[in-house]
């Protein structure tokens, strides 16, 4: 069957359709006909006050037409193995870190207020080469090599943002940002509120995290769980070159502080991305593989483990729907909800720790909002609550492996 | 206290006894030279001269504003005891000279950032009494809409960056503001204020290192009131010379109870920062109240010490003596001024008391920036996608 791609189209302004029209109806007919009962309503809730808890239906709110905004290119084929987004138009191939660099460079060209600060981002080119070449192009005042003082330079980035600059603060490894937790929590997240709206903090805090190849416990941390409760910030996790560039650009343009989580092992992923400019929506989840039997929610590196497991599952006759949630705060309960209403089973696969991780919050959110639609309890596969060991075999068992995902799906779909 | 009489006061003012004192404030700008009480102590730089240029207008302005600040803080004390102000309330009485002297030396384009003892600095930056009392009582008309409280006063249009609760965290923020000033090529400086307690924070030295490295126009001002809450400075710091702590960064020690010394030092610091990079100022000052309203302030120091400072070094008394010795106003006129100030503060409090509390919907506003499609209702979002520009 042909792959239906919704991607970069000419006259994108007119072609923009809201995301929820990418229905699985367009693809293979559902194997369970009983599904058709519930899946059609569009969930559009007016949201003027914080107490609106019911799903009312109102007119579909069309996206503001932005000539440069291209909706996510969605991969459709069931037989898709690698979860990559491709576009119809000719694009160029690059690695994920190059995509981040491209996004960064385009935004720095576009807005002179954007600057980068971090350790070794300038002359060295960035420890993961994300900022390579930028110091030569933009100079030392816009690509700033800082000494090793996360607390201070994060604070400085936030102070600069209060005046209107748009700094991008890089933590060489996300784990180092624990030293700047006070600045991120109290100043970055809360200043907009405590000043009664006077100051905005348009910073982007980014860096690689996650379990790598035997990097040791302190360099394999997943900070999503620690930051998720901070009010006032947004968190996104990129997983492909396409969404890396899109999310980087969206994060820089956002007036809110955004924490962009990258993964150490994903920097060398190769993909073809469009030549023309595009931005990804910060609060939106990405439909990686539509399906019917079960919803698998994942983000960052685990997406690839899930897709690998999906291959096995398809061979065994299952039809999983895989969604890369991308937005860790706030959750895109719209996309997730639609999926749950279709499949009635949820499996969350994440790299965060079991206790108090993103999966834990997501489980609670799904149970609270979509309880009626669930046929089975929400299952969450997370990393073990242990410091990441050095030995390769042990490290492998700290994170979720595809075989565990297959077993979990089989268990849920009994 | 050494005073030098002005030798050339050109317009002799003929004063009819019944004249209202307002006339002095509005008209007379004859220069007066005042000598600071103590010489400056310098570290790695040449101290500025002890003679400060001032004018009668400025002297009376100083007196009036400092008396206003003093009255405001004492009124806040009573409001706190009446349980109209809750939580933490850190009062600045005794330290007014620092706020006043600094304001006199700089413009509204220069930024000030301080910690939680921010009521008077906010006032100095142009805030109104109504905003202060409303914010302290959590009302809508407060400068942060009632959502910040005593420790979170901000005024963006006068470059006052707050108002921060966590000790020391404002210094890297201040250096960031200085960085932005350099980036945007504004000829302005940032004063980052902190206390003797915060002087032991590591992030201060981190920020100072970066500021010195990148030549940022940052001025770090240590308001040394000798007590970090209940801990005296000799029990907390091995080296009590906070102005020398910068090591390779020049420093200046200033008598913080003398508004003119503060003014001279801040002017000097601004010129230095614009040319040569960061500098540290240590203001030797004192607070009469305890650390905050929950601290009586007498368990770690004697009442004699407090009253001693009040008698010998009180900043308002000093200005008052200067005003009287220069014949700018009579005792009675100054007393009338104080009465008027008292009434002004009482009126502001009454007006603030009438102000409504914030609407319940305000709980959810300003968490994220509105108008950019993101609205916050907690992590459970029930609305359609946000659009970004």
TrEMBL record, chain A:
Cofactor: thiamine diphosphate
Keywords: Oxidoreductase, Pyruvate, Thiamine pyrophosphate
SMART domains: Transket_pyr
InterPro entries: THDP-binding, Transketo_C/PFOR_II, Transketolase-like_Pyr-bd, Transketolase_C
Superkingdom assignment: Eukaryota
Enzyme class name: oxidoreductase
Pfam families the UniProt entry points to: Transket_pyr, Transketolase_C
EC numbers for this chain: 1.2.4.1
Domain Transketolase-like pyrimidine-binding: 94-269
NCBIfam families with a match to the protein in the record: PRK09212.1 (NF006667)
Protein name per its UniProtKB record: pyruvate dehydrogenase (acetyl-transferring)
The organism's taxonomic lineage, starting at the top: Eukaryota, Viridiplantae, Streptophyta, Embryophyta, Tracheophyta
Gene: LOC104792212
Automatic annotation (TrEMBL), chain B:
Annotated EC: 1.2.4.1
Catalytic activity: N(6)-[(R)-lipoyl]-L-lysyl-[protein] + pyruvate + H(+) = N(6)-[(R)-S(8)-acetyldihydrolipoyl]-L-lysyl-[protein] + CO2
Domain of life of the source: Eukaryota
Cofactor(s) annotated in UniProt: thiamine diphosphate
Domain Dehydrogenase E1 component span(s) in chain numbering: 65-360
Keywords on record: Oxidoreductase, Pyruvate, Thiamine pyrophosphate
Oligomer status and interactors: Tetramer of 2 alpha and 2 beta subunits.
Function: The pyruvate dehydrogenase complex catalyzes the overall conversion of pyruvate to acetyl-CoA and CO(2). It contains multiple copies of three enzymatic components: pyruvate dehydrogenase (E1), dihydrolipoamide acetyltransferase (E2) and lipoamide dehydrogenase (E3).
Family matches, as PANTHER family: PYRUVATE DEHYDROGENASE E1 COMPONENT SUBUNIT ALPHA (PTHR11516:SF60), PYRUVATE DEHYDROGENASE E1 COMPONENT, ALPHA SUBUNIT BACTERIAL AND ORGANELLAR (PTHR11516)
Full protein name: Pyruvate dehydrogenase E1 component subunit alpha
Provenance organism: Camelina sativa
Species classification: Eukaryota, Viridiplantae, Streptophyta, Embryophyta, Tracheophyta
